[in-house]
Amino acid sequence: MASIAESLAQWASELEPSAEDLALAQRSLVDTAAVTLAARNHPLTEIAAGLPDAARWAAIGHVLDFDDLHIESTTHISVVTVPVVLATGGDARAYLAGAGVMARLGGALGWSHYSAGWHATCTAGAPAAAVAAGIALGLSTEQLATAMALAVPAAGGVQNAFGTHGKSLQVGFAAQAGVRAAELARAGATADPSALDAWLELVGGTGRLDLAGPAVPGGLAIKVYPCCYAMQRPIAALRDIRHDIRGAVRGVRVSTPEPTVKPLIHDRPGTGLEGKFSLPYAVATALLDCYPDFAAFTDDAVNRESAQRLLRQVEVSYTPGEEGLLTGEVDIELEHDGPALRVSLAQPPGAPSRPPTEAELREKFTACGEDVPGLLAAADWKSVRELLRQFFPRTGDVE
């Protein structure tokens, strides 16, 4: 029986993208480039300046937490695979091969892997990055399986890093590990493909793979707000009622299925990064800010008196729910000077079943920088590669 790595390598080698697959690849390229350019002045850009291209671009692209998400696997697919493909001179097919492997590996790892505290973007990302790089570099099917096995030692990353630079840096490490593994396989390195099977079992994966369907099964969720995806739904729900609030807010009660807030580990955030992983702060920014953009997730914004006061007024209760970040719906009740306001929401804007509108995408890309829509007007893989080299050149070396 073929190993998991061999099965995935065969699928990737034989992939013939459909028109729908290619449209998804183009949207992912543009979205990832936009959120990476948005971080051009972030402190991490200088910190990561000595990293290789794939690691540097992936870390910078993830630091604002504005990149897309594959809901079923709870992985940030494009911020791993797009930088890898750009760094290795690949195209849409290489992206789709890596993205498809990442979606399927993340699905095989399952919710229990994520809920145990692993950062699935990194664990599924390293072997998937090896495939994306391998297709770009012209590896054979056998070499692709070898590259996935060679990426296993780097397939790590934990949620304790959320709210720090470590989260985006470990995504960069996973991306670069895939490039390194593919280059070693091309150079003739050997490895046992069944290492991926053994690793999958050790980290709690089911090992079940479905190779049918589109390149990326389930599609990708596009973020409308620059924060953890678990905050997108409560923010969107509250924005629907914020204009009906009269006088002072006296209390906010949030009820949500417990799995939907697994990544939100900061109840009392004190920094902008911590605010991106805080359900109480999701309430605060949704009520205080006309549009929760990058300015809403700075240290000053999180620590403003009005936000800290609202944090203390939020009560959260959890209901049982199926696995996943979008299971069930969020229910919110808000007390103010008028009759209590109530709102429920199942699918936020940008979810695969509720794709972002053109207006929402324009608002997002403009928030990433007034010049970003123009820079990406005719984006293709080659032009984006040159754009990132221009804005994020490598300076020095990080061992």
Automatic annotation (TrEMBL):
MmgE/PrpD C-terminal domain sequence ranges: 225-374
Superkingdom as given in the UniProt entry: Bacteria
Membrane-spanning segments: none
Residue stretches making up the MmgE/PrpD N-terminal domain: 58-196
GO MF entries: lyase activity
InterPro entries: MmgE/PrpD_sf, MmgE/PrpD_sf_1, MmgE/PrpD_sf_2, MmgE_PrpD, MmgE_PrpD_C, MmgE_PrpD_N
Family: Belongs to the PrpD family.
Record protein name field: 2-methylcitrate dehydratase PrpD
